[in-house]
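new request in #modeling-help
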Amino acid sequence: GEDVEQSLFLSVREGDSSVINCTYTDSSSTYLYWYKQEPGAGLQLLTYIFSNMDMKQDQRLTVLLNKKDKHLSLRIADTQTGDSAIYFCAVASGSARQLTFGSGTQLTVLP
Amino acid sequence: NAGVTQTPKFRILKIGQSMTLQCTQDMNHNYMYWYRQDPGMGLKLIYYSVGAGITDKGEVPNGYNVSRSTTEDFPLRLELAAPSQTSVYFCASSQDSEKLFFGSGTQLSVL
């Protein structure tokens, strides 16, 4: 089945850019997602990209997709303390586009 | 606008007890999903449904059962609770399986 890998931790200074990386194995994946989870809360959809796109920008968020290397990244510009959370990469496959999640990257924003 | 509602928020079970985790959505979505999230891990798919009367197994279905008698409700049943089922359970729904909306989760401990 699908395997999705993320690094576990990332620390950045407030105002810097954050880049969270993700790799996946299933080349037939159709949609790729980034979710944010704050402590004790459910998952909030941040952005997603269709597999025929290379890049998608949405305000402070930029998603880059390298299909050849099966690599997805999320860049957060001007990172704020409110961005501290766990970020999950998820990849859709199957007839019901079931999602396979990575283990999450804990982003800590330092003042 | 309630979205996806899960009850209860917290529950402690003894080994061998049974319980039903409730999930309801008011968005008339066809697709519904149950995920579990173990500490420090991503979400794993337990069961999903593409419409009323149709359910299918996900990655980790053992020890669980589901039903989908209406579009709105997708309960998850644990028949003989085991410590390995201690987890946070998330229900999600989507209209076209493109964007998932998550409930706030049920934290279950089996002692």
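bot summary: The first strand of chain B starts at residue 4 and ends at 7.
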